[in-house]
Design a protein that fits this description.
CATH architecture of the largest domain: Alpha-Beta Barrel
Strand content: 15-25%
Number of strands: 16
Number of helices: 17
Low-confidence stretches: 385-389, 506-512
Largest sheet: 8 strands, parallel, barrel
Mean pLDDT: 90
Helix content: 25-40%
Bound molecules: 3-methyl-2-oxobutanoic acid, zinc ion
Radius of gyration: 24 Å
Shape: globular
Structural class: alpha/beta
CATH class of the largest domain: Alpha Beta
Strand order of the largest sheet: 1-2-3-4-5-6-7-8
Distance between the termini: 35 Å
């Protein structure tokens, strides 16, 4: 095997820091399982010390995931590091990722510490972490904007203390590829013990160059770990996108000459899962996972592809999980066909009871919709395995009236802690009327910060998938609902968001 690039996924930590993308423990566990299926080498599961919710998420993932290394972020202090180690206790392979800012700007304005104090704290943190786990990553935050001389001093010291991975973050997305690649190469050349650690890149996408910068860090700088997120999720313009960097390294192996452990056929399912869970829609022209990524609209391209695929295709759609047989099942399909399709789509259900419940919902959907697409199946199972015990509200039925010239009106039935509630309202449109009816009973006072409708399989026969993002008392949650009737999907999404707002789970997003 040639040199290998370690793929470090931080969707559940840096990705989750994106406003509105916070996920609960069950959602994080489902995504972690999909990352394990993808054969991601390291999963950064959260920031254990930042909240009880994050601690529990890291702990749950560490106990459940066997094949990937599980990592927790931690500031460079004993309290945070101990908390990370505690959360990671059950992991087969655990990593603590500790960080402290090293740029003059961050040290002076944010930390209010002198460079010497930062130097000492970085050393002590790595020493402390190494006493708890064998695998310790150190990040000088805002590393790319730090003074190279100071960075050399800090990195040499933390490697001497036992740091096994050195990550060089471009925290604010300021780098350009050639300069970033040279920056890392220069550090590696100047630091006498640099070969005692694996070097890692961590790029933000503020100037749209996170993937290019990461690749330059690998090619020019000699980094052998890339930190990235599914769909490039992350604060502001996001992080380096996993699917893009992986497919670039794989497709241009002739140029990079590097191997990866990733099972790329699970990429699309991972992308959809993250998009459905967070409500961050994937743009149609997004590389690799966008709906148009492999669609050839022009006659010349179509003709070429039919004659020989590689005239216009540099990757095979199937290699990243796109399927060609789109119409898959109907109302006569049996449980075995359904189960097999789930397996082909990379969906693993934990128990026969989960499969049975998904199959019942599949049959209900097949009664409403003659053709069931892969996308329908994925939407159907998107919250399977997610605990429903804390669900206070459940959708039962809805009727609504909308007619040109008349005021839209909706009447909805749902349960509140098992008690049936029937309530109606008018509104600007049928969706508005339905949600107002729910709100008239619930009185949540939440502010809606996002409402989006997406046709799951791209036609009018499709199910509508609705995402509702609510904000209340500093908490932001996403609710998702799918149904062939978009008004029903909207009501389901709203109730799902309200359930999350009610849940006691501590959901404060981590601070990096
Ligand atoms: O962007 C950044 O600097 C980070 C660090 C905590 C690694 O996310
Ligand atoms: Zn980051």
């Amino acid at each position: 095997m040639a040199d290998k690039v370690i793929i470090f996924d931080t969707t559940l930590r840096d990705g989750e820091q994106s406003p509105g993308a916070s996920m609960n423990k069950d959602e994080k566990l489902r995504i972690a399982r999909q990352l394990e299926r993808l054969k991601v080498d390291v999963i950064e599961a959260g920031f254990a010390a930042s909240s009880n919710g994050d601690f529990e998420a890291v702990q749950t993932i560490a106990n459940a995931i066997k094949d990937s290394t599980i990592c927790s972020l931690s500031r460079a202090n004993d309290k945070d590091i101990s908390r990370a180690a505690e959360a990671l206790k059950g992991a087969n392979s655990a990593r603590i990722h500790t960080f402290i800012a090293t740029s003059a700007l961050h040290m002076e304005k944010k930390l209010r510490m002198t460079p010497d104090e930062v130097f000492e704290q970085a050393k002590l943190a790595v020493r402390f972490a190494r006493n708890l786990v064998a695998d310790v990553e150190f990040s000088p935050e805002d590393g790319y904007r730090s003074d190279p001389d100071f960075l050399c001093r800090v990195i040499e010291a933390v490697i001497a203390e036992g740091a096994t991975t050195i990550n060089v973050p471009d925290t604010v997305g300021y780098a350009v590829p050639e300069l970033y690649g040279n920056f890392i190469r220069n550090l590696r050349e100047r630091i006498p013990n640099s070969d005692m650690a694996i070097w890692s890149v961590h790029c933000h996408n503020d100037l749209g160059m996170a993937v290019a910068n990461s690749l330059a860090g690998v090619k020019i700088g000699g980094a052998r770990q890339v930190e990235c997120t599914i769909n490039g999720l992350g604060e502001r313009a996001g992080n380096c996108s996993l699917e893009e960097v992986v497919m670039a390294l794989k497709t241009r192996r002739d140029y990079f000459g590097l191997d990866l452990g990733i099972d790329t056929k699970h990429i699309l399912a991972a992308s959809r899962m993250v998009s459905q869970t967070t409500g961050f829609v994937v743009q149609p022209n997004k590389a690799v996972v966008g709906a148009n990524a492999f669609a050839h609209a022009s006659g010349i391209h179509q003709d070429g592809v039919l004659k020989a695929r590689d005239t216009y295709e540099i990757m095979r759609a199937e290699d990243v999980g796109w399927t060609t047989n789109k119409i898959i099942l109907g109302k006569l399909s049996g449980r075995n066909a359904f189960k097999q399709r789930l397996q082909e789509l990379g969906v693993q259900m934990e128990s026969e009871a989960d499969i049975n419940s998904a199959f019942t919902r599949f049959k209900e959907l097949a009664d409403l919709k003659s053709e069931i697409f892969d996308e329908d199946i994925l939407a159907l199972v998107s919250d399977e395995g997610v605990t429903h015990e804390q669900e206070q509200y459940r959708f039962v039925s809805l009727s609504q009236r909308s007619e040109t010239g008349k005021h839209p009106y909706a009447s909805i039935v749902f349960t509140d802690n098992g008690e049936e509630v029937k309530i109606s309202s008018d509104g600007n449109g049928p969706v508005d009327a339905s949600l107002k009816a729910i709100e008239a009973h619930v009185n949540s006072g939440a502010e809606m910060v996002l409402y989006s409708v997406n046709a799951i399989s791209g036609s009018t026969e499709s199910q509508g998938e609705v995402t509702v993002r609510l904000q209340n008392s500093g908490r932001v949650v996403n609710g998702i609902g799918a149904d062939p009737d978009i008004i029903v999907a909207s009501a389901k999404a709203y109730l799902s968001a309200l359930n999350k707002l009610q849940s006691k789970a501590d959901r404060v997003a981590a601070q990096g």
